[in-house]
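Suppose a classmate hands you a notebook page containing two proteins, each written out with its sequence and a corresponding row of structure tokens. How would you begin to make sense of it? This section walks through that situation. The first entry is reproduced here exactly as it would appear on such a page.
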Amino acid sequence: MKEKIVRIPANNSEITLYACLGEALMKTQVAEQALSHSITLKKNPDETKEQADEFLKRQQRYTLGHAIKIANEEKLYNISLLEDLNAFLVQRNWLVHNVIPGNEEDFNARVIKNELLDKIESIRDKAEVIHRKIEYDLIDFCESKGKDMSKIRAALELQDQGMRIRKQS
């Protein structure tokens, strides 16, 4: 016997929450992908593309926590970036696993508090920062291997400038 479920349309605050969560999760996944690619390149700088692609496939199966553990154990990044990654992992885990606990009453009442949205937005912003730091670190790594990264660096700096302008407006 099929149960008939009556769906209640989301109110504006719920729609805002879903949009914030979606954006934060997407930006977190982009940062995770950047980390996987970076680890792959740093651990396999002299491998063929095919070998690096195989390593990347394995690397992408790891959780963010496992990838950060590898980065820590193998000292793949400077201390500042490793500290940022470790702090971000705590925030990301809260977003993925604990956004509901502690907020059940509000969710049941269909009320979304600004503090919750602010916390989610700060995780979104941190994911962007982590992503960008990984990109610049990877540029530095490639330059240390003799690659000309000037065009890539210039393109990132132009994007950064555009982001700063948008945030100021």
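The notebook's second entry, a different protein, reads as follows.
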Amino acid sequence: MTGINESNNPEMIVAAVDMGSTSFHLIIARILNGQLHVVDRMRDMVLLAAGLDNKNRLSEDAQKRAVECLTRFGQRLRDMPASNVRAVGTNTLRQATNNAQFLSIAQHALGFPIEVIAGREEARLIYLGVAHSVAPQAGRRLVLDIGGGSTELIIGEGFKAISMESLHMGCVSISRAYFADGVIRARDMRRAEIAARLELQPVERQFQGLGWQNAVGASGTIRTVDKILRGNGWSDNGITQHALHKLRDIMISAGHTQRLKWDDVSNERISVLPGGVAILLSIMEALKIERIDVADGALREGTLYDLLGRIQHEDAREISINALMTRYQIDAAQAVRVEKTAMACLIQVAQDWKLTGEEHVHLLCWGARLHEIGLAIAHNQYHKHGSYIVENSDLPGFSHQEQARLAGLIRGHRRKFPTGVFAQLPTAQIDQEWRLCVLLRLAVLLHRNRTDTELPRFTLTVGKKSLRIQFPADWLAQHPLTETELGREAEYLASANMQLTFS
């Protein structure tokens, strides 16, 4: 696969945008000798999760706050190449039923694509950011991150996450549910803690069984709690259960978030602090954590390091694809044949069909490797089984959008051309997707015999909705099965308003 050659870019600038449920963050770093050196940070407390109504629709006010923030970020990122910027959305954008409409506006404001990532992918990136920001240690560590709409728990060792969970509770969602009017009552705090314990219950035994040497917390809620505890002299060595109980009691005694005042803690952060404290205390009690260290790194730093891995050809997505191939016992030799031919086709048409981006290479290669994954379930309709597996699996490194596009290629690699599947993609990607799918279909068709016999040199000529394949003289006459298959393929594509000719 192609990639950015760092040897030709001795000093490269990269950036990550973290569109969290509470705050949006921008981090910009310079790559020097393979290491990240942060040169700028921006942050805005957008409170995106507070904009979700009871039908999980994102309000116009919340969208406006987000777009205004992203417009500012976009100005700072202007003129950076798209391959050097990664923007990710988390729990609120996973939940929002109108996220497609919002993302179209948001991407225009930012000037770069925005990926909505799954909860476990968010957890993986958080762990990566934390692991790079704390001192190396032997043994396992537990990492926890309380966001606005979700809480991530990860056990890992070194830079590798071992077990990851994303729980449906966050400082904004719990605060809205139990402290909506800002009033802090003992009974409501207890109800919030019970709700958090119930959410934790299914994973308590799993995490306790794995064990860890120390616990580390990340992101706004935990850093705010640490700042308050240190500022008041209640703890000078991380967050302890004893100090956290003291903070909880003081909040209840104050009775309202408006009566809570701490230096360098904004009113917006205080408004969602009761929910965050309830979650944090519940985690510490459930997992019997006496002390939590606090890390500087979190999701945005992890996103940067993951981007750096892609630049240096250490892509987590490649690992996920290879793991799927092993797990579902894919015929690797056939996958290689199809991938090689698919790439040969892409090289011929990339300019005319506007498939010159690195993401097009990745998608086509991954589609070729996984096109037969559904055979692990059944041969009948295996393209549909494979599409379902890819779209619904936890794939480290992938966004929801990437998985949907890859699943679409697998769904469309044989039989009827699935125009309806591609119609669900953003408008800008539809043409790209069906063109990649046509190339994958052609590569699969040409390797129907599943042997290593070399294909002849063939040429592709394309138009906006047409593809012509020309083989050496008499080759098709000597390969009647391929000629028949191409004729059938022409009929399939014709139903999708695509003309295929061959000679």
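A careful reader of the second entry would note: The chain has three domains: 6-116+302-308, 134-295, 315-455.
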